[in-house]
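User: Can you predict the 3D structure for this chain?
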Amino acid sequence: MPAYLHFPLSDQMSYKYFWRPIVPMLTAAVLISPVHAAGKRPLAFREKMQPMTRPGHADDNPTAVDRIRKTAPGAFLNSAEIPQSQVELLAKDTYEKSRGYRLNKIIRGNMDRKEIALTFDDGPHEGYTLKLLQILKQTHTPATFFVVGKQVEKFPTLVQLEVIEGHEVGDHTYDHVNLNELTPEMVEYEIDQCDRAIKRVTGSSVRFFRPPGGNYNKTVLSAASRRGYITALWTDDPGDWARIPGDVILQRSLDRLENGAILLLHDGIQETLDILPQLISEARARGYKFVTLSQLAMNRDKKDIEPMIVGKTKKF
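Assistant: Here is the predicted structure, written as structure tokens:
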């Protein structure tokens, strides 16, 4: 042993016994470090939703929001923004099919099955999301949450809880902007930054993407499809985003129920929380079953599935 490492025997013994109880503690610390404890979803969920390859990620750009505000200030959505209506989305879908476009999107499920997908946009929100999850848990109702990246970073534990309780999470952009107003590079940035935020919290990427307001064009759909996303729209928007009375939200939702419906609601709306238990109860009384968006997509009729083959799709 080199002279500078030579200790008297008594010191060597003390040194040896000093480390004996510490080694197990260090091992335990590694095993329960934040990497493992801060939101990796349970194995069952990781097996169901394996991380997906996302080719073509835009580079990180910390000044992206400033660039959007300077080049496309109208892209930022606010409370006055009106989402695409069911009629507009269906008309656009009919036109695209008539032109032979094959697009990787879903607007409804199987019309021969009494299934409904509840979807909630724009969360998570402190003081609302937890109440929403409690209602869904009490009524044993699965749902799909389209989360905003910057909100995910503010309230990561709420997104983790959504996944742990068996719900599905989707990408709703990082800044909640009208993607039709952005350059292709900024569209990619918005999608990718939200994906990264979700993946940091849950350990996995997601399968569905919803453009804010239902606003999309070829650039948006192509960017989403290259990343393996299915773009998810809706058949039923009762307009809770406008903070209308709860009884109006309830009646509109019930009036438009149909097989394969995708119901668009919003996280952060008290009126929606107030009527949700009754909405769920009434829908079930009519024979409808609530499923996640993945389940709704899986049960679609084959003729309604339009996989997009990037590079071989008929152009707009």
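The chain has 14 helices and eight strands. The two ends are 76 Å apart (CA to CA).
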